[in-house]
Amino acid sequence: MNENENNFEALRRLLALKRHETPPPGYFENFSREVTARIRAGETGGTADASNHVSWLFRLLLAFEAKPAFAGGFACTLCLLLLFGIVYAERPDVTPQPLMATAQNTSPLAATTPVALSSLSTEQPGFISSTNPVFNSPSAGSWFASQGAAVQQVSFRLTGN
Amino acid sequence: MAEPVPRSEPQQSAPVDEDELVRASRRGDLKAYDELVKRYQERIYATLYHMTSNHEDANDLAQEAFIKAFQALKSFKGGSSFYTWLYRIAVNKTINFLKQRKNRTHMSLNDIDFNAEHDPDMVALISEQTPRRAAGLTELQEKLNAALLKLSEHHRLVVVLHDVQGLSHEEIAKVMECNVGTVRSRLFYARQQMQGFLADYLKPT
Fold this sequence. Notes:
The complex is a heterodimer of chains A (161) and B (205).
Chain A: H1 2-16, E1 21-22, H2 27-43, H3 45-66, H4 68-90, H5 97-105, H6 108-112, H7 114-122, H8 139-147
Helix pairs in contact in A: 3-4
Chain B: H1 18-26, H2 30-52, H3 55-71, H4 82-100, E1 113-114, H5 120-127, H6 137-150, H7 153-164, H8 169-176, H9 180-197, H10 199-202
Helix pairs in contact in B: 1-2, 2-3, 2-4, 3-4, 4-8, 7-9, 8-9
């Protein structure tokens, strides 16, 4: 038992040497300041939110640096979006559905081509003196009305005469 | 002739009662809590350093322990001293950390100053005709830390608190929330283990 105690005493003396292990000089001068600063930072949640907004962008940039494949994929996605945008922009305008339905019920060429207009005017000899298909055709308004399409009234102003 | 620049010396105010500082800190007075941190930072850090053998880990754990203690001050009932309560927080945090760090031991001895050259025990140890003569200060430090790290967290804590920090059995029992008998048996077992690990340094001449 005495030998054990003696050995323990030697061990205690050896362990006591660990008291000489100290942190770098000046370490404790800033320690309490760091603790209180961290407590203050924890109390003000706004600062943390702001840093979160910065951090997602920062993390994205870091992901680009760390994974080139990720950056390539992101670039490909952007290119595809650009191509899709260009193709979509160059497509001809699609006629709205109600007008399409109207066009199917009648011959669209009859209202727009000069040949059709001339043939229309020949059927009504009283208006043959004029070549203006709109002004001289009294049935133009009734034609649109008969198709049930909404007609927007326009006014023409003659200038120069 | 230029006037001498007045030296900014720390204010030598009367020591404030610990209970008063705790009450003020509980109300959110960070200045009072700063005073409490200054009072106990060295002892808390030293304990955590001897438990982890790593300066960075000890620094992080000590800071976190003080922060957690501030946040939990409202739950401090005063049943024990603030120091014991703070110690308990730091020690529990460290034991949890060490359990997670298991099998991932690393020492950052370069960050620590070992100022034992003039200690009489150290002089005796390295001047005797024993294997430890060949061991330099750094090697001895490494051997000591490695031996401590081989102990379980609870046994290491008892050795550190008693043989390094100099706490009594009763104080250790309060910190570890166990009875004094448990502390004594753990200390005995831990010392036996340490004797085995450091046999070369403990051989009688």
